[in-house]
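Bug #77: duplicate submission created two jobs. Keeping one. Sequence:
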Amino acid sequence: MVRTRGRRAAARAAAAVVLVLLTACGSTVQNRAGLRTAVGGDGLSAPDGTSTGGGAADPGAVAADAGLGGGGVTGTGSATSGGTKVTTRGGTSGTADTVATTKGPLPKTGPGWDENYIYIGVTTQKDVQRTAQSLNLAGLDAGDQEGEANAIADELNRRGGLFGRKIKIVFRDQNTVQTAQDPNTVGTATCRYYTEDRPVVAVLNPVTLMDVTSFRGCFAKAKVPLFSASVAAVDAKVGADLAPYFYQAVAPTWDALAPVLVRELQGQGWFNGWNARTGTAMPGQKAKVGVLVNDDEVGARVAGIVTRALASVGNTDPVVFQYTGTDFSSAVLQFSGRGVTHVIVTSADLLGFQLSASSQSYRPRYGITSYNAPQTFLENNGPKDQQPGSLGVGWSPSLDTSDANDPGDTSPAEPECLNIYKKAGQTFVGKRLAEGVAFAFCDGLRLIVQGAQAGGGLSGAAIFQGIQQIAPSFNTAFSFANGLGPTRLFIPGAVRRLAWEPSCSCFRYASAANAKL
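Kept job's structure:
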């Protein structure tokens, strides 16, 4: 029993670093890197792997191809915004705010920059692997997080930096146990560090445990954009209330995901009858769906979104359970007692639920997404009696599948990012989580820099305006397509059907077609 509880706690802790959500099923990293080594004029590498477009870059701009697969904008040497106004929804009341970008040349110094550097904050959680190993959890190597972020910054600097300055990463590491015990205090301290002690123009955060309401709100109040590379489950209202200071780098909102997930589950026959005691099909039995969400305001809204999506396909009476902490015994008892045969868990905590369900001989059919980290958590560490019948959708192949099942056809940015890491001595064969973290850093840092460049400034409003401009051409390294838009402040924009394959005891994509979010 002690061991089971420990594994649950470790699974939740590891979710904090499950930042990225990578790319596809099938080939190895080397195979994927070989799919495309040149992306034309907007790439970073020539077919022979050498860098293109080097030379004397305009000191006031990022070269047009420094955006890694699109979206880069050549600057003029002085940042001007033209006084563009961005109307956003601000505060929990939802009242409208109008924020104007700074007009005129960029001052020599400001909050998050000086004459030589532009500072970007990146949080890390370097003790996750050690914690996982102590509890015999496999495949939870997040890699050299500082080395991964610095590799991207170094490449962008080699390409000219931003507004005549070099990009410098300011790291802050988070202790897993402390963050799990008191995420509000740890998050607030981290926010103050980046907004008061060591000011930065933006923050990229992969630590899920810290990605709570108070943490997000602190950055918005300070008007510092937060790019979340965590897998905390949120809805569109979170982004609307915090705009233009909150973006999701590795996961879509549940408003976008739920209708697609339910439609794709229906198309795969997921709602067919199931015996939750034997973990086998039961023809003729009606599905009873259980929905597990966090016990907070956002979780309640997500539950409503999923419930409405289920109703659209005729499943009108789901059982919703809001949980706190990492003890899922109550959820298992509630679901099994009320005849739930099919379960959807909206966060990275599905592994914890499965461990508890297995100990109680409860084997429902799961509707899965990349939020659940199918390969990283479930395939590597989940009870084998829990996986049969699992179907769903995924947008992050490195979290969804093993190297052997990666399809290798995401976007041009993927091989470009891998090439940068290779030159920096970073490789990821057999290390899916580390690869996902690396892709999250590659996408997030590029998006911040390209947004600032296109928006002509370093304020949150300027970065927001720039991201809207580059959205159609931004290529993501960890997903199949990007979903960015005026009211869609998240990168993943497409999913594929995903299924548990008994013959290999693994997850594989059940189709090669993308469904748009």
